């Protein structure tokens, strides 16, 4: 068993509750198209890129063939405009419970931190939260060929940390994210319901329960 030397974090729904803002912005966009989204369906959007999310929503509403590429770009842009408005208000007070303590414990233990978010707004949110200086490396989602559940983003994070995937723990709130971590060969930690996190190596129901000593004990 290799020692854990890196933690790779998802952002939305793990470090801050921006997953809720994504949900609000998609729900409003979909409502304008006559498609009603609920939280159960939203689980399938977590971790999924902007355009892939739109495609899933259109398929859900039986509208897959109704828009051409340019119209879909415009719809995705409209969703992002609302999302970007919502995240202007983010402050360090929006860091989810337990995350600041976990980051401090990781620093003290010499364990490096990477961000593996599918969001192009990730760096902006990290800045707003005041966490930029604590993150050692950020994977640029624009450079990826495949989104979660493909392991690419987590493999890239390990590479940027100069670590083997087996030396890393991945933390996610999305079903697609847990699958990506598992396929990357990292120890997966899930935050969410037992049902949504059923494939996680270890799961907690809230970020407050994320304790470094317990995670390291489970991962070894
Ligand atoms: C992920 C979110 O982190 O980023 C998804 O879980 C979101 O809901 C995706 O669609 C892409 O985000 P953005 O900000 O680039 O549209
Ligand atoms: Mg997430």
What report would you give on this structure?
Belongs to the HAD-like hydrolase superfamily. CbbY/CbbZ/Gph/YieH family. Keywords: Carbohydrate metabolism, Cytoplasm, Isomerase, Magnesium, Metal-binding, Phosphoprotein. GO terms for molecular function: beta-phosphoglucomutase activity; magnesium ion binding; sugar-phosphatase activity. With 220 residues, this protein is an alpha/beta fold. Helix content is 43%, strand content 10%. It folds into two domains: 6-16 and 96-219, Rossmann fold (3-Layer(aba) Sandwich); 19-89, DNA polymerase, domain 1, CATH 1.10.150. It is built from nine helices and six strands; from the N terminus they run βαααααβαβαβαββα. Helix 8 (175-184) links the parallel strand 4 and strand 5 (187-191). It is globular and about 50 Å long. The N and C termini lie close together (6 Å). Bound molecules: 6-O-phosphono-beta-D-glucopyranose and magnesium ion. Magnesium ion (MG) binds at residues 10, 12-14, 19, 46-47, 173-174, 177.
